[in-house]
């Protein structure tokens, strides 16, 4: 995640950021986008994981909301541990109005704690007409819609340097085995095959999920995501064994296993697209493009490109997604203004503001694909929309945060341990089951 955790995290210290200018206006309460600045004098506090270029681009959306409604905005960074930080803010009487939640499991937790305001009729109408039903389902708890998916991620994309593949004499692969073979050719030509961001455990869950979805199929994927299937199932061991063929091959990993465990997500992108390339490929979601473009000046489609995460064992290629759901907290001081922000975020206009900046996909079907700034991102967005209800949401984002969304514990840590030593997939599966059983029970 981006989830999860979406990328470019700066830590768990709360950091108030730019306060948009407050404008005053009169008139009655209107939906965001009305332009009469009726929310003047209010400040909507938004909490989320974003930083760097992602936050810079989201701030443009918040500034447009301010321009239309008069409501100022204040963004606070939560770091990885969204549930812990937001929970402490609520208990301390300083709840944000809106939270951008990067995990389905956290959204469900918040709803069951009674922290969330059901979304307004306006937002429900927009979601019902402009989004595939899968996004409504993931944003709902007990048939009540609490979350609006503003930013989505296509997590079945492998990004590469066209120069690196060309020098190695290989083309974008169409199967997992071909990908490893192509990686070895890249390594033989002087670069490591993959930069793996093992320091960020969420990236490893994404690796596993793509392999598992393709190899085991969507029914078992759904069952494992809901813990109706145990992690000790043979299908999990098989997927870990497949992933281990990559993790244990020092020829394929930039810096070997130790190097991967000391590489965070931004660092993995830098190792492929930075000034001193160390690897030819990096697996992660479409948001890699934003980092490659904004931080390293790469032209998407020319200097940086992607191929779909290839199918495993001759099976269908996976389509794994993720996303950030905007929710409104009941305890927020300006929750009504916060709901107006969500009404604005549900509009194609809001999505278009970020889309043209890059590093962003919208699940809103009403967004014109022409809003995206390059053909590669446009193709990725089209693929995500076309997948409709067949897309599968990031599995770890569906799990309780203690298992699938917390640094240093659960799935994140256990897959880091597996990257360090992938010799015993069965033992890793057993450890995952122990952690999952406790988290789902709690």
UniProtKB/TrEMBL annotation:
Belongs to the bacterial solute-binding protein 1 family. It comes from Streptomyces hintoniae. Keywords: Signal, Transport. The keyword Signal applies. PANTHER family: ARABINOSE-BINDING PROTEIN-RELATED (PTHR43649), OSMOPROTECTIVE COMPOUNDS-BINDING PROTEIN GGTB (PTHR43649:SF29). Transmembrane segments: none annotated. InterPro entries: Bact_solute-bd_prot1 (IPR050490), SBP (IPR006059). Pfam families: SBP_bac_1. This is ABC transporter substrate-binding protein. The keyword Glycoprotein does not apply. Residues 1-23 form the signal peptide.
